[in-house]
Design brief:
- InterPro entries: Mur-like_cat_sf, Mur_ligase_C, Mur_ligase_C_dom_sf, Mur_ligase_cen, MurD.
- By secondary structure, the protein is an alpha/beta fold.
- The chain folds into 3 domains: about 90 residues, NAD(P)-binding Rossmann-like Domain (Rossmann fold, 3-Layer(aba) Sandwich), CATH 3.40.50.720; about 200 residues, UDP-N-acetylmuramoyl-L-alanine:D-glutamate ligase (3-Layer(aba) Sandwich); about 130 residues, Mur ligase, C-terminal domain (Protein-Tyrosine Phosphatase, Chain A, Alpha-Beta Complex), CATH 3.90.190.20.
- The protein contains 18 helices and 20 strands.
- The strands form 4 sheets. It has a 6-stranded parallel β-sheet, with helices on both faces. A 6-stranded mixed β-sheet has the order 15-16-20-17-18-19, sandwiched between helices.
- α2 packs parallel to α8, α6 runs parallel beside α8 and α7 crosses α13.
- The radius of gyration is 23 Å and the shape is globular.
Length: about 450
């Protein structure tokens, strides 16, 4: 699938110049497609816009002029995933019947390489990384893309048709897809998340369901048999279903039996040899095995990765131990479920560092998982809500600070020998930090300063 047929005679408006928008605009310009870029940031402060302008791309910055649609006879709008559908340009495009894509859809039209599409409310980064590492360990040709790193369109533009494109996909990205069809798809789980963006649970589920919707009988859909929502959403897929379950023993698919990880009832490796911490990671591991075994990866490669892989950065990442206090960075825990899973990983006393963007929800769901929490250090917009939570649970030490750097120091000062100091915010970072990665890096730096 190449843009020669689909986009060559189209006029494309790229809205938003974050990583994905810049990649989309650059590639379309290289392909000779007529592309116009619109970004809210003023041109003089917009390095990406300046680079594109030097290449000859028309860039309009500082406002969103609706007249662009008529001036350039726009046929397709490609938007940054984070831009809401309430945006004036997006609303105008939809009103005119103009397709609104994310650059994942563009990526699909740029290559004949097969996609592995991975999504879910939690665990998709770990799973995507595991799939990629196992394919590399088995000398399979694979590239990693999407929400985890390099923009999907940039990877697809360079990919050859014999390379797998292992793609982590958010609901924001999937919502803007039309024809995107992964050869192997996975929806790990579905919990309430990003409802401020999608407005309803139904809209969120429909966005996630896009991972399955366009598949055919020659594709494979990996399905979490333990999640009723996932199994319901997967019914739309015509693909062959491959199931995994942490709770049930399966004849077909991935499961655990008598301390052994099985796939299609054949042993893959002993569970005791897996070094990735946390019971919640079993779901990610079984899903990964379904994907890589479908792609032809040998057990030896799976064993090699799972016996050495300790996790991804910002997801239950062990940082260091200082005076017998262990520090963990779980900055990627941007919702309540992720923090629940983090808390369930420890049986030692925990000092929880939490807070961030206020999406209007409370945190009562955390209460059953807070038995080991001896203190809370909170920050950001939701600090008052965590203070209320601590008071209701009778936690004696609850302290508000300005940011994660102060939180690391405050937690250390409150800690005792043998404590776990856990950054697991249960909130997005955007009230104070550009990304959860930036938040996590600031925490890591602050921890190392304590030495």
């Amino acid at each position: 699938m190449d843009t020669e047929g689909l986009l060559q005679n189209q006029n494309v408006l790229v809205l938003g110049l974050a990583k994905s928008g810049y990649a989309a605009a650059s590639i379309l310009h290289k392909k000779g497609v007529h592309v116009v870029v619109n970004d809210q940031l003023p041109f003089e402060k917009n390095e990406s816009a300046q680079i594109l302008a030097e290449k000859g791309v028309e860039v309009i910055c500082g406002s969103h002029p609706i007249e662009l649609f008529d001036l350039h006879s726009i046929d397709i709008l490609i938007k940054n995933p984070g831009i809401r559908y309430e945006n004036v340009m997006v609303k105008e495009a939809l009103k005119r019947g103009i397709p609104v894509w994310t650059e994942v859809e563009l990526a699909y039209h740029l290559t004949d390489a097969p996609f592995i599409g991975i999504t879910g409310s939690n665990g998709k980064t770990t799973t995507t990384t595991l799939v990629y590492e196992m394919m590399k360990a088995d000398a399979k040709k694979a590239l990693v893309a999407g929400n985890i790193g390099t923009a999907a369109s940039e990877v697809a533009y360079q990919a050859t048709e014999d390379e797998w494109i292992v793609t982590e996909l958010s609901s924001f990205q999937l919502m803007g897809t039309y024809a995107f069809r992964p050869k192997i798809s996975l929806l790990l789980n579905v919990f309430d998340a990003h409802l401020d963006y999608h407005h309803t649970r139904e809209n969120y589920e429909l966005a996630k369901q896009q991972i399955y919707r366009n598949q055919s009988e020659t594709d494979v859909a990996v399905v979490n048999l333990d999640d009723d929502v996932v199994t319901r959403l997967a019914t739309c897929s015509k693909a062959e279903k491959v199931y995994f379950s942490v709770k049930q023993e399966l004849e077909h698919g991935a499961c655990i039996k008598d301390g052994m990880i099985l796939f299609h009832n054949e042993p893959v490796m002993p569970l005791k040899d897996v070094v990735l911490p946390g019971e919640h990671n079993l779901e990610n591991i079984l899903a990964t095995i379904c994907i890589v075994k479908t792609a032809g990866v040998a057990n030896q490669a799976i064993q090699k990765v799972l016996s050495s892989f300790k996790g991804v950065r910002h997801r239950m990442q062990y940082v260091t131990t200082i005076k017998d206090r262990m520090f963990y960075n779980d900055s990627k825990a941007t919702n309540i479920l992720a923090t629940k899973k983090a808390l369930s990983s420890f049986d030692k006393p925990v000092i929880l560092l939490a807070g961030g963007l206020d999406r209007g929800n409370g945190f009562d769901e955390l209460k059953p998982h807070m038995n080991s929490v001896k203190a809370i250090i909170t920050f950001g917009e939701t600090a008052p809500k965590f203070e209320k939570l601590g008071k209701e649970l009778g936690i004696q030490q609850v302290k508000r600070v300005d940011n994660v750097e102060q939180a690391a120091s405050a937690a250390f000062n409150l800690s005792d020998t043998g404590d776990v100091i856990l950054l697991s915010p249960a909130c997005a970072s955007w009230d104070q930090y550009k990304t959860f990665e930036e938040r996590g890096d600031m925490f890591i730096n602050a921890v190392h300063m304590l030495k």
